[in-house]
Amino acid sequence: MGDGSTGIKKNMIDEMNLRERAIYWTKHTGVLPAIKIKDEDDVIPYIHAMHAGGARVVEITMTTPCALEHFKAISAQFKGEVLVAAGTVLDAATARAAILAGVSVIVSPAFRPEVIATARRYGAACYSGAFTATECLAAMEAGADMVKIFPAALGGPKYLTNLKMVFPEMNLIPSGGISLENAAEYIHCGACAISGARNFFDYEMVKKEGVAWVTRQVATYIEIVAKAKADAPPLP
Fold first, then answer.
1. HSE-CB for 48 with a 13 A CA cutoff
2. Does residue 148 have an active-site annotation?
3. Is 227 a catalytic residue?
């Protein structure tokens, strides 16, 4: 007989607003997979594949053709079971349009204070891009919920350790250059989640193995992240 903790957790999540739920699921799953699709593609099968692998927040980049229409379709079909993040958002107008189309998270590749302000105004989470310590602090002071370290490969996992030593409470999501081989090290060095596009969604692999490849890839990353969090050594 269960102790009811699962039910309690579900009730807690159900009572969260979409911003809070997006932040919770990003931390809990430890992944923020991104998709950039072609004109003729239907995004829904890929979202189903990522959801089957365990993803609860999925990013669609604004460089994707008809991104706003995809946001509307995902929101209508999944009704909160999968939350949508708009990626590569560079200005306030784009952030507003994406939120009105149904996204719960705004993700930028760089520190854009007007993007953060718009996300907060409309009740969406904001994962602001940054790289330097100055940018990270500015993003948090502007109201970002998490800081996306991009391009992460430029500094590598140890760079996150240096940032966490200065900003221990900051939620960092490295993006760019994350792989199955180094994901655990990024978590050990202080990342709360990992992000990326090709590491979760690769057209060539999908062409060879079908959308099941996407499901396996997401599930593998989630497993790696969970294990890394469980055995992560204390940061210096």
1. 9
2. yes
3. no
